[in-house]
Design brief:
The structure holds 2 protein chains of 2 kinds. Chain A is an all-alpha fold. Chain A is built from 4 helices and no strands. Chain A has a domain of 110 residues: Orthogonal Bundle (Helix Hairpins), CATH 1.10.287. Chain B is mostly helical. Chain B has one domain. In chain B, α3 crosses α4 and α6 packs parallel to α8. Chain B starts with a helix and ends in a 6-residue tail after the last helix. Classes of the chains: A mainly alpha, B mainly alpha. The interface between A and B is large, with 59 and 69 residues.
């Protein structure tokens, strides 16, 4: 018998967000989706921290905001989460900039394809044969084009998509 | 196999967190430090917003650490993205509606951001929140028209000035009071804009630092070369 009190619902929501984020981090095969999953897990963790400071019938921790004598929620988790959010933005911006570099270098963010192209690159640099399995088709397979830099003068006009 | 393993892992994680949550008394914070802050912070610091009082007053050193993490992230992003070539193409502007809307929003966002930063010790808000709103003003302008770019040198100056101001206030407190980042200048009358001693100054420094840091990050990201067609 499950009682759907406020407590179970909010805890299940916050922990569910953490679980969804963790699952996305493990299961996703695309780097950008992994970044989004990291963001979801982060919001779940922040929500969980905020919940630990909850008091019933309490006001925001601002003196003179609520009715006189009313109790206030615990301000310390709010301070910690406040900074964690901004740090999270910084981490995500850092991750996005690395994704931009990966995309410019390999032309894809799909993990399996990325790994294949990296292995090709590494074996080409080392001068050894590329790793291949018995199932791989014989002969060379052309790589999809990597978005390469060309000077503006040599560029064709962008097509309307 | 991998899917089953990750499902098991996530289920276990959720179960552990739920078990942890079930043992906590909901609505009755077990940490006594929060209650102590609520009791002491108002009379001691004179700031109506206790969150800012804790952020800049009691945990100022912590906040300095957070600012340096943000600085490290922004520096690393700039390092990873590198310089753009002079003749690299840019994305076209977003059209009349977007650019006009961005021009309209820009001053409003600036005013709201400055208000939130300056009133950080009185109303909900403070340096971090207001700084993000200030940065959002520049985000909107840059997203609507990528050819408008911020001056990286100016951002670096604002950022350095704000960070140095934060640390200098801390050192001043160290010399006068014996504690790094201890609140100075008395408490004043609670509820007035010139109250709570050095907290508003620290709040402004945090706001400028966060705003310029995030705006610089966005400028770096939008300065990466657009993909050729």
């Amino acid at each position: 018998m499950i009682h759907f009190t406020l407590e179970t619902v909010v805890y299940a929501g916050a922990i569910g967000l953490v679980a969804i984020g963790a699952l996305g981090l493990v299961l996703c095969n695309h780097l950008f989706r992994m970044l989004l999953a990291l963001g979801i897990a982060e919001s779940g963790a922040n929500l969980l921290l905020i919940l630990t400071g909850f008091r019933p019938d309490a006001t925001a921790p601002i003196i003179g905001y609520g009715p006189a004598g009313a109790s206030m929620v615990d301000p310390l988790p709010q301070v910690l989460v406040l900074t964690a959010i901004v740090i999270g933005v910084g981490v995500q911006a850092m991750a996005v900039s690395m994704l931009v570099r990966v995309y410019r270098a390999y032309g894809t963010l799909e993990m399996s394809e990325l790994r294949r192209r990296m292995e090709l690159d590494i074996s080409a640099a080392a001068g050894i044969r590329a790793p291949s399995s018995a199932q791989s088709p014989a002969g060379e397979r052309p790589l999809p084009p990597v978005p390469a830099y060309r000077p503006a003068s040599a560029r064709v006009q962008p097509r309307e998509s | 196999m991998r899917n089953v393993a990750s499902l098991l892992f996530t289920g276990g994680l959720a179960f552990l967190l739920l078990a942890l949550g079930a043992q906590l008394a909901f609505g009755d914070p077990v940490m006594r430090v929060g209650a102590e802050y609520l009791r002491v912070a108002g009379p001691e610091l004179g700031a109506a917003n206790l969150v800012t009082a804790i952020l800049a007053g009691y945990r100022g050193f912590d906040t300095l650490g957070e600012l340096s993490i943000l600085f490290a992230a922004a520096t690393a992003a700039g390092l990873v993205l590198g310089h753009r070539r002079a003749d690299a193409p840019r994305d076209p502007p977003g059209g009349l509606i977007l650019t006009a809307g961005a021009d309209l929003l820009f001053p409003l966002l600036l005013v709201v951001g400055i208000y939130i930063v300056v009133h950080g010790h009185l109303t909900p808000g403070g340096g971090f929140q207001g700084g993000v709103v200030l940065a959002a003003a520049f985000f909107v302008a840059m997203l609507a028209d990528p050819s408008r770019s911020l001056s990286h040198a100016l951002i670096a100056w604002i950022e350095g000035f704000a960070g140095a101001a934060f640390i200098l206030i801390g050192i001043w407190a160290l010399v006068e009071d014996g504690h790094f980042l201890a609140p100075m200048l008395g408490t004043g009358v609670m509820g007035q804009i010139l109250s709570a001693g050095t907290l508003p100054l620290l709040s402004v420094a945090i706001g400028l630092k966060v705003g310029s840091e995030l705006a610089g990050l966005m400028a770096h990201l939008s300065d990466t070369e657009a993909r050729d067609q």
